[in-house]
């Protein structure tokens, strides 16, 4: 039987080896938790996290296919090497992301912090989601998973993506050039845009100044999408009233960064959705079979578009 000769470079390498051990058409020839322990000359197929893979791919002269263990692959897309197939993992984060997004939308509008700090019977009146507008930046599978929840809360949903093409479940769809109009309609905004040159600082001073005061901004996409200096300035004007930030231009976020102590930010630690090693292995197993059969691979990335 023909086998996929696989190198693994991941902090979960040992667990991935175990999960792949009984797959007859996958042979793990080497595995390591750090990039410097991989013999790059032996790499044909690489199963790896992008931050580690980016340290070695340009020396992997025989590599034909790289299966990423992440949904986002900015560390690889920024490199010049492109003569290989790059596939991501998708559709394994939707449940986690749904919970993350609506945890903080409800946290904001139901006035959780104000109620927590109340010390008398002066009523803190919550706000409701019904008839409010949720704006979603990005129109992939995670964005689609938010739609039924928003609809259950009787929210209106508008979207923003590269093409502006209509998608089921959205009242309207905007393009980046119309981002201020998009922002002006939203009570809550969720950024899920990929990291590409076109999305760099999509959330800038103009975008933020167009927001309704009192809203919430959630960034669960990519850190480069937000102009952090502009956001710090705009928070002074209640645009937004709360910024929930999971991703940043620099990670780990430096301990001296003003976001940590700002009264209108909630900082999470790039934990909105965490890779499930079992599901990553399942994705690779499926794609390995497709690779052997000469079939198109699932979730192949376009290097130019960045997703």
UniProtKB/TrEMBL annotation:
Gene Ontology MF terms in the entry: NAD binding; oxidoreductase activity
Pfam families: 2-Hacid_dh_C
Keywords: NAD, Oxidoreductase
SUPFAM superfamilies: NAD(P)-binding Rossmann-fold domains (SSF51735)
Gene3D superfamilies reported in the protein's UniProt record: NAD(P)-binding Rossmann-like Domain
D-isomer specific 2-hydroxyacid dehydrogenase NAD-binding domain segment(s): 106-272
Protein name as annotated: D-2-hydroxyacid dehydrogenase
The organism of origin for this protein: Alteromonas sediminis
């Amino acid at each position: 039987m023909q086998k996929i000769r696989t190198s693994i470079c991941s902090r979960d390498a040992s667990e991935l080896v175990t999960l792949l051990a009984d797959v007859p058409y996958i042979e793990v020839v080497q595995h390591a938790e750090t990039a410097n322990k991989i013999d790059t000359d032996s790499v044909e197929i690489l199963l790896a996290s992008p931050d580690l893979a980016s340290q070695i791919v340009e020396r992997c002269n025989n590599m034909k296919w790289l299966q990423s263990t992440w949904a986002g692959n900015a560390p690889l897309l920024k490199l010049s090497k492109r003569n290989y197939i790059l596939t991501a993992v998708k559709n394994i984060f939707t449940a986690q992301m749904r919970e993350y997004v609506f945890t903080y939308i409800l946290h904001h509008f139901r006035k959780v912090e104000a109620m927590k700090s109340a010390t008398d019977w002066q009523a803190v009146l919550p706000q409701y989601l019904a008839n409010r507008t949720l704006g979603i930046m990005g129109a992939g599978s995670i964005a689609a998973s938010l739609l039924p929840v928003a609809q259950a809360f009787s929210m209106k949903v508008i979207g923003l993506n590269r093409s502006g093409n209509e998608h089921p479940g959205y009242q309207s769809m905007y393009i980046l050039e119309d981002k201020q109009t998009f922002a002006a309609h939203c009570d809550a905004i969720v950024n899920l845009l990929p990291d590409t040159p076109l999305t760099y600082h999509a959330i800038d001073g103009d975008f933020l100044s167009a927001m309704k005061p009192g809203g919430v901004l959630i960034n669960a996409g990519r850190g480069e999408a937000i102009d952090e200096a502009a956001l710090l300035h705009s928070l002074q004007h209640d645009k937004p009233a709360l910024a929930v930030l999971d991703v940043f231009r620099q990670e780990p976020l430096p301990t001296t960064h003003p976001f940590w102590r700002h009264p209108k930010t909630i900082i999470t630690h790039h934990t909105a959705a965490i890779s499930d090693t079992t599901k990553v292995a399942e994705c690779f197993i499926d794609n390995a079979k497709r690779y052997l059969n000469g079939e198109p691979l699932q979730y192949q990335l376009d290097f130019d578009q960045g997703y």
